């Protein structure tokens, strides 16, 4: 019997944990309504490959305590007698539930003898939309897939967003069960739903991934066959009709894409996925090549759509075939899709880098700070390391982002956060063996000091030497040849700034036969090291054409004529012309040196060799200077001297002449002084620390030339087999100090030195030794392999 109201109040005050509860309904039981809630155990999610529900895997739902007690209170006040068989507070606290199905007549019982039916409780709705969890009965029919609790969450979200879609029908329909033959492997997205003892069909793909408002409202949401339709007549037809609809195709494609990203996580994985049709696979391949071309050529990403349309216009097979079949033309190349492509590419590159970092122990931080075109300060962090498996030297950009604090400590905090996140991703700690920055005070003193005193005392600072030779030449230019260099640079900018003057230069190039079509003037730049060489190379090749163009402009009596006269007067001086031609001969080996060392994986021993080669070439610049060709150039420009008026009242014109007589000995002395200053500047930029490191590295680049005793007595061996301490004082006066243990074991090095000498016999570069040790020395001389991994991290610097 139902307890009194006092008993109900007593139950309400109890702390109940209710699981697996179902109520028996009798003929005089609780009435059901279209908005009633069925309190019945939920069914766990099933594998998509299964064809039926297993009752042994059935879970349970936990209805609200307040709802249960509210129902009990309602039934206790009814005039008719109602009873709850076996219902007690003790059972509420238990984990068992009982379910008994009763029907009004025998025929209905026979029709649903395989169903686990229930009669829902009447619970007042909260809000306009009642959650589907409270409206759906989780039944079992052999071979039929019923919707799960998790899938109902998406249906609830769709019903809340589109309240006009009707869930129930007002018509009374005969109950018809779905057929198990509908739930085949071709319809993995199909689910059955039972609400108020009436069955319907749902598409879980459309319930979760449908986004097109028009198509959703037109198709009435995720419903294939709603509860008030007769499944006997509309079931299979409704399934096939829904499967061919645009809404389902779009939702199914989103489901496949989500699974591909989840399983593969990158564009390459998508292209290799067998679930994609051949047309889509071919289409994505074309799009990926197009996007990569845009990125490589530094074209604006907003042009991606234009490139795809251009490919379609020229009837690219992969694009034409797919667009003819697709209903959503911009699915993979809209603005949103472009962002997803970039994210996928970024994730793929990051995955490759993290996988590579797992193979190393020592890293070198290479950092540079610069400003982009919007004058926003950016910091670029590169890592140099060696992969243990093959001994390959890697240099990769890992971070490029804007910074707000450009002080040394501010940059350190960016580095500290980067290293911390990187170690979490890789799952191991790294040893920072070197830091490579430029000569800026915030980097050279504060940033490197904080890293070495707070992250790794082994992080030895190595001055960026990529542009060492270029800086030396720049110093020499500013010392003696600055006027000549500035004159030719300003003259070329003057010619290229105006279209009319540029056209005069092109015509002059054709007249002097220096170019048939006319070569463009190099674009000015204060950051590109190659610009200095480019302008003097252009000037020497088109010297006569430049003089002719400036002379023509000086006589035009138009805007810029006076500037043209001044430039042509200076450039016709033999000393200025000589200095420009000598600059070309000196900047050429400097430029070749820069291009040579821009190769990734280059070590300091090879850098020293390249510096020596460039130094020898520069030292012979005056011995190789072609005075015969230089005299020919001076004779040619005499004919292009500007014509000037003798006096203000004279009607006669006279050609302006400049003496072309040269003193070769004087020019040679001037040139030798300039070359000597370049070499002295180069020597001064190699400080004592740099010379010591390079000298010792050169020893280990050819270990077979040294005896085992000499190798063991090298200062670098002594350095890395002893503890190291570093103390740094910040700008705020705070002292930081760190001490790290030795990176190498002296005994192990001594034991394996003979095996190491034999394995590396005849090898003369550190990269080659690393490769050889990775193959043959990782077991026989592992400590020497570790030592060379440290040496391999020493970088030359940030390349242009």
From TrEMBL:
Record field: compositional bias (Basic and acidic residues): 97-112
Cited InterPro entries: RNaseH-like_sf
Region feature (Disordered): 84-113
Organism superkingdom: Eukaryota
Protein name as annotated: Zinc finger MYM-type protein 1-like
């Amino acid at each position: 019997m139902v307890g009194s109201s006092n008993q109900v109040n007593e139950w309400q005050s109890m702390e109940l944990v209710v699981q697996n509860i179902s109520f028996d309904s009798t003929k005089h039981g609780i009435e059901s309504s279209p908005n009633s809630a069925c309190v019945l155990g939920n069914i766990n999610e099933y594998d998509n490959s299964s064809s039926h529900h297993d009752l042994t895997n059935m879970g349970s739902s936990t209805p609200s305590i307040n709802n249960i007690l509210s129902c009990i209170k309602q039934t206790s006040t009814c005039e008719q007698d109602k009873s709850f068989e076996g219902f007690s507070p003790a059972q509420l606290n238990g984990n068992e539930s009982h379910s008994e199905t009763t029907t009004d007549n025998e025929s209905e019982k026979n029709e649903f003898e395989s169903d686990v039916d229930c009669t829902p409780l009447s619970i007042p709705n909260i809000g306009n939309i009642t959650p589907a969890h409270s409206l759906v009965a989780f039944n079992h029919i052999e071979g039929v897939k019923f919707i799960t609790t998790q899938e109902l969450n998406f249906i609830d979200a769709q019903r809340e967003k589109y309240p006009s879609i009707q869930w129930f029908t007002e018509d009374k329909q005969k109950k018809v069960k779905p057929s198990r033959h509908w739930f085949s492997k071709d319809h993995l997205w199909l689910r059955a739903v039972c609400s108020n003892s009436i069955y319907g069909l749902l598409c879980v793909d459309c319930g979760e991934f449908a986004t097109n408002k028009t198509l959703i409202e037109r198709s009435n949401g995720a419903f294939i066959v709603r509860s008030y339709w007769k499944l006997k007549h509309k079931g299979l037809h409704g399934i096939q009709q829904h499967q061919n609809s645009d809404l389902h195709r779009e939702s199914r494609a989103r489901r496949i894409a989500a699974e591909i990203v989840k399983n593969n996580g990158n564009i390459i994985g998508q292209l290799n996925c067998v679930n994609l049709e051949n047309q889509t696979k071919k289409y994505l391949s074309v799009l990926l090549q197009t996007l990569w071309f845009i990125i490589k050529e530094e074209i604006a990403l907003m042009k991606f759509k234009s490139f795809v349309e251009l490919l379609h216009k020229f009837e690219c097979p992969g694009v034409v075939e797919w667009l003819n079949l697709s209903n959503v033309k911009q699915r993979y190349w809209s603005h949103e899709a472009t962002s997803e492509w970039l994210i996928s590419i970024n994730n793929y590159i990051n995955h490759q880098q993290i996988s590579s970092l797992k193979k190393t122990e020592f890293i070198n931080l290479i950092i540079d700070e610069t400003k982009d075109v919007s004058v926003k300060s950016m910091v670029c962090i590169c890592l140099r390391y060696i992969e243990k498996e093959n001994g390959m030297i890697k240099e990769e950009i890992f971070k490029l982002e804007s910074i707000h604090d450009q002080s040394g400590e501010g940059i350190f905090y960016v580095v500290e956060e980067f290293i911390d996140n990187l170690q979490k991703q890789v799952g191991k700690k790294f040893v920072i063996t070197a830091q490579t920055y430029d000569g800026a005070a915030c980097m050279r003193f504060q940033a490197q000091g904080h890293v070495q005193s707070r992250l790794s005392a082994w992080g030895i600072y190595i001055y960026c030497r990529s542009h060492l030779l270029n800086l030396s030449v720049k110093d020499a230019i500013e010392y003696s040849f600055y006027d000549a260099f500035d004159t030719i640079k300003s003259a070329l900018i003057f010619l290229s700034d105006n279209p009319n003057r540029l056209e005069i230069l092109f015509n002059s190039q054709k007249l002097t036969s220096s170019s048939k079509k006319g070569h463009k003037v190099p674009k000015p730049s204060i950051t590109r090291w190659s610009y200095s060489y480019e302008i003097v190379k252009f000037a020497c090749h088109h010297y006569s054409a430049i003089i002719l163009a400036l002379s023509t402009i000086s006589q035009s009596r138009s805007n810029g004529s006076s500037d043209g006269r001044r430039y042509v007067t200076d450039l016709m001086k033999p000393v200025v012309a000589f200095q420009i031609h000598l600059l070309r001969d000196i900047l050429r080996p400097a430029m070749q040196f820069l291009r040579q060392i821009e190769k990734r994986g280059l070590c300091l021993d090879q850098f020293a060799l390249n510096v020596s080669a460039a130094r020898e070439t520069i030292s012979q610049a005056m011995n190789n200077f072609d005075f015969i060709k230089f005299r020919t150039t001076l004779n040619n420009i005499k004919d292009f001297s500007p014509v000037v008026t003798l006096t203000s009242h004279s009607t006669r014109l006279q050609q302006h002449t400049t003496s072309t007589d040269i003193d070769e000995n004087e020019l040679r002395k001037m040139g030798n002084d300039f070359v000597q200053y370049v070499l002295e500047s180069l020597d001064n930029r190699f400080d004592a620390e740099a010379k010591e490191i390079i000298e010792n590295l050169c020893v280990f680049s050819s270990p077979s030339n040294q005896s085992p005793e000499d190798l063991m007595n090298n200062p670098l061996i002594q350095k890395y087999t002893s503890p190291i301490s570093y103390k740094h004082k910040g700008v705020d006066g705070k002292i930081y100090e760190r001490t790290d243990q030795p990176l190498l074991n002296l005994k192990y090095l001594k034991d394996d030195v003979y095996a190491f000498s034999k394995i590396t016999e005849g090898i003369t570069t550190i990269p080659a030794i690393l490769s050889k040790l990775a193959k043959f020395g990782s077991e026989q001389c592992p400590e020497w392999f570790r030592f060379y991994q440290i040496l391999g991290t020493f970088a030359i610097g940030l390349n242009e």
